[in-house]
């Protein structure tokens, strides 16, 4: 059984397509997580990931993948570009005027990160609840998870895509910068700002001691 | 008066004490962000993907067969044109050297008749004469076009 990507690629090139299953099993959920952040629809995201896998398969069999980069980085680049292309196609088909903005050139660094989150009703509810119950509310892990989820769901895609690449796809700052064609400083800054803001939100609700007791 | 005794080690210990809880919260939040961002595909995802891969493999096999056929047909056509040009040149040269009436000469006369009638039509319609030499040039150009097409398919596209 092949153990490394190098060996798997060789197997596939020799005609053993079943070896591709190993790549799929390893990367499918991670690729899906990234695509979901762009398409926000399970069926469309699955189709998009399938398309990305097909592109990878063709690239391997046609010797287009030249191992200058890691296979996973190469694949996530395909996943990202396929998702963005599909998003644009779907947007055109639906004549949608309410849309996410996957095009980074239209994005300005600023307070969007905070504004979007605070504007959400869910966040408002959480803060109203906190106000009612007071600061001594018991530390609740699942509630923190809910806060994190709401936060991630409401921040701009320019942040959530980078966070997914960093936390789920395990890409380095340099790799994210090369996939998204963004300066490395911007990548680092967005990860830092997104995390710092989340920390600030959580520390407004719970004290450090409460969290540390749980940790 | 008590003298303030500053040691760099004290400074680091204070700094470490301050940063440690923060580091723990960061680790805790990293875990939470990871959990939140993680999504899973449906159970039949790999099955569907492998089905598509198998179909793609079959298509690729068919493509190879078709490509081979196109290669042979194009190659055969190019060879036929080249052979025809060479044959025609040989016949014309022979005809100029010997005046014997034979099979080739009869064929040549018929061919000559066709070329002349085309020549009359082209002169009337386009304003230029279509003679043997023009015919050869046209055939040569056609040969070159096919040769280029053939080379393009075989040599260049293979490396893209």
Features:
heterodimer; A: 215 residues; mainly alpha; 11 helices; 73% helix; elongated; B: 160 residues; 4 helices; rod-shaped
Question: In words, what does this structure look like?
Answer:
- The complex is a heterodimer of chains A (215) and B (160).
- Chain A is built from eleven helices and no strands.
- Chain A has helices spanning 5-13, 20-39, 42-61, 71-94, 112-119, 121-133, 141-154, 157-167, 173-180, 184-205, 208-214.
- In chain A, helix 2 packs across helix 3, helix 3 packs across helix 4 and helix 9 packs across helix 10.
- Chain A is elongated and about 60 Å long.
- Chain B is an all-alpha fold and 160 residues long.
- Chain B has four helices and no strands.
- In chain B, helix 2 (45-97) runs antiparallel to helix 4 (132-156).
- Chain B is rod-shaped, with a radius of gyration of 40 Å.
- Mean pLDDT of chain B is 74; it is low at 11-18.
- Chains A and B meet through helix 2, helix 3, helix 7, helix 8 and helix 10 of A and helix 1 and helix 2 of B.
Count of individual beta strands of chain B:
0
Based on CA inertia axes, which overall geometry of chain A fits?
elongated
Which ranges of chain B are low-confidence, i.e. pLDDT below 50, for 5 or more consecutive residues?
A: 11-18
Number of helices of chain B: 4
Give the termini separation of chain A: 40 Å
User: Mean pLDDT across all residues of chain A, rounded?
Assistant: 81
